[in-house]
Amino acid sequence: MPQMAPMSWLVLFLFFTLMFFIFNIINFFSINNKKNFNFYKKMNKQLNNNLLFLKWMW
């Protein structure tokens, strides 16, 4: 049925946006482990004088 073709693009778009948001939520809750926290702390200490880095991070 050719008249149903745009619906497939809508379904694909909704699927990928949903997967993007779900991945973001999972990352937000799983970034709280110690390894990542120490990594970001070290990165901040190493580049705390870099205004461009702080502008990018916040």
Automatic annotation (TrEMBL):
Membrane topology classification: Single-pass membrane protein
InterPro entries: ATP8_metazoa (IPR001421)
A Gene Ontology cellular-component term: proton-transporting ATP synthase complex
Main localization of the protein described in the UniProt heading: mitochondrion
Residues that span the membrane, as ranges: 6-29
Domain of life: Eukaryota
Protein's GO biological process: proton motive force-driven ATP synthesis
Keywords: CF(0), Hydrogen ion transport, Ion transport, Membrane, Mitochondrion, Transmembrane, Transmembrane helix, Transport
Pfam families linked: ATP-synt_8 (PF00895)
Subcellular location: Mitochondrion membrane
GO MF: proton transmembrane transporter activity
Similarity remark: Belongs to the ATPase protein 8 family.
Subunit-level organization: F-type ATPases have 2 components, CF(1) - the catalytic core - and CF(0) - the membrane proton channel.
Protein name: ATP synthase protein 8
Organism: Clunio marinus
